[in-house]
Amino acid sequence: MAMAEAMQSAGANALTQTEILPIDNQTGYRAFQAGSFVFRRDDYFARISWPGGTHTMPVDIFLRALMRDVAWGFFYGVVNFDDVIGTINHYGDVTLFAGRFNDAYRNAGRDFEERFASEALMPLFKAMISDWTNEGFDPFAAPMETGLPWGSKNGNNDPAVNRTRVAARRMVGLPGDTPLRTDESGFPVNRMFADVPTDEPVIEAEPGFEDEVSAYNLFNYLARSDVTWNPSVCSVVGDSLFCPTSEEFTLPVDHGNDRCEWFITLSDEIVWDIKDKETGKPRAKVVAKAGDVSCMPADIRHKGYADKRAMLLVWENASPKIPELITQGKAPVVSVTF
């Protein structure tokens, strides 16, 4: 009842386009409906159905993908949960699809999609990640840092799934902005980064400029991240966003770009599988080592793998005009033409 009431408070769009269904007496989990899509889970799997189709995903993979879609606010462009299910962000509206970016589905005419107001779909996704995440499992954590998602309904882990994504207004550490991470604030150094220096730079600002000059140890900040594959906005200059993150295991989604996206590998190694955005066909494999810089074009999807926890700096141009300019052919899909 409390969850249904929470959905009602999200507004009329949530009532007309989405619905939280009753608890399953056997599994203890609720089902969720978004338009013609119905989401159910059991001990091991998330099961999605729509008119003319069904799809099954291991529930750990589904929850890790759903967690990023929620935390990122549907992110830039396409969030492919796997080769079938995902969302497209239209920045105000969002498309939920099955097979939209899958050659086999599209060639057979079996792809299906529906468009929702973002404010309607997001509360449903938040309710789903809360209900389907059992006590002890953190869909933001690396597998060796969390419990298991399997089995019937067993409590929740709302403190984990309700984390607020870091989004600095100017820069981390500035007065009144996002604070630095410290032992005292509950962010110890991750087990993989025990060798990272934690000393902070000394700032000697002229009187009157104390709030205008700032610096911090980015490696120390990232070494204390309690999540993986979750870019945090740590500095902002106009539409230019620096979004560093720590990576371990696999990126839980295939991210389909709607703009160019720059990656600077700050430590260790990340392997990227690059596929065609529309068809999913392989295009490249990129092995990015510490110090390597790469640019993901606007017409691909990418998925990363990191054995040793790695630090990655993602640079985003967040201008809302870019997707339309690319569609109109007024902006390139690559950063450099050789």
TrEMBL record:
Record carries keyword Oxidoreductase: yes
Pfam families the UniProt entry points to: PnpCD_PnpD_N (PF18191)
The Hydroquinone 1,2-dioxygenase large subunit N-terminal domain, residue ranges: 24-166
Transmembrane feature ranges: none
Keyword field: Dioxygenase, Oxidoreductase, Plasmid
Highest taxon listed in the record's lineage: Bacteria
GO terms of molecular function: dioxygenase activity
Cleavable signal peptide: none
Name used for this protein in its record: Hydroxyquinol 1,2-dioxygenase
